[in-house]
Amino acid sequence: MSDQPLMPSEVRTKVLSQHREIEQMLSELEAGVAQLGQGGVDAEQVKRAAYALRGILELHMNFEEAHMVPAINEADGFGPERVRHLHADHAQQRQELDRLVDTIREARSPDDLTASVKRLADMLRNDIEEEEREYVTDKLLRDNIIPTDTFGG
Ligand SMILES: [Fe+2]
Ligand SMILES: [Fe+2]
């Protein structure tokens, strides 16, 4: 991947499209769980998909930290405060994700598996919704044609 910094609007577009892909994967995971016991899908496949999703989420959070954090930091006077919040949110999400993915991998019954996949999906949808409300906005991630400090701002 290139180290060329992305424009804030490009960061916003990419983060939003990654969120839509993650939601798509969650829907597929839930659809897989709903078919458990019908022959087409087995518990191991669901567990592997959940484990793969954990890896994709790590890449996603790394992308946000590499590209969205610098853009938010520069956005306005509250940038550094928002960045601290975002890092704290991610730290909590990583812990929670590890815990939930472990629960999924250790699930002993289809009901356990269904319940833990639902918890994972609910958590991630909430995180995405909150993140889009707090950070991934066109107000914070917009391209400034004129640097703000030109006029002493
Ligand atoms: Fe995030
Ligand atoms: Fe995100």
Q: Which regions have little confidence, pLDDT < 50, spanning 5+ residues? A: none
Strand content: under 5%
CATH class: Mainly Alpha
Residue share in helix? over 70%
Q: Output the structural class.
A: mainly alpha
* CATH architectural designation: Up-down Bundle
Cα distance spanning the termini: 33 Å
Report the radius of gyration as a whole number of Å: 18 Å
Distinct bound molecules: fe (ii) ion
Descriptive report:
With about 150 residues, this protein is mainly α. The chain contains four helices and no strands. Helix 2 (about 45-75) packs antiparallel against helix 3. The protein starts with 7 loop residues before the first helix and ends in a 19-residue tail after the last helix. The model has no long low-confidence stretch (mean pLDDT about 90). The structure holds fe (ii) ion (2 copies). One fe (ii) ion binds near residues 61, 64, 90 and 131.
